[in-house]
Amino acid sequence: MIPKEFFITSGKATSPVSELNAFDLALKKAGIAQCNLVPVSSILPPGCKERKWRKITAGAITHAVIARMDGDEGTTIGAGIAWAWEKDRKYGLVAEAHGYMDLKALRETLEWKIKEMAKIREIEIDKISYRTEVLRVSMDNYGCVIATLVYTL
What we know:
This protein is an alpha+beta fold. The protein has one domain: 3-Layer(bba) Sandwich (Pyruvoyl-Dependent Histidine Decarboxylase, Chain B), CATH 3.50.20. 20% of the residues lie in helices and 44% in strands. Strand 6 (76-85) and strand 7 (92-99) form a beta hairpin.
């Protein structure tokens, strides 16, 4: 199975009940709560086109590169992905990052990671794109942030 398209989405949420409920609401806000997500590693196949978000059939097994961070009250949490194509567009790379970090630290980490991935593969990459979510979790709540690259056929 080689995906033909992908889209990028993200979400953030809090819940007074549990981390699971914060995660579920973050998925809903990202528009992918109805999917059975299967995490995959970080290579964009040749010819795979970026598209706008699209609804996926409820219950569909859905492959995605997922960055997720959960947090408790008073913490700042961040999750993000960066993606870039090899200069000749033979394939692309996707990097994920998550942690107790603000937007600046998250973007710096993503840039460092994707550049290291390119260095390991001895390739040059084009422009790096980013999708990030950062959240300061409010008192008496759990929080979750996610950023995902979702493959479609």
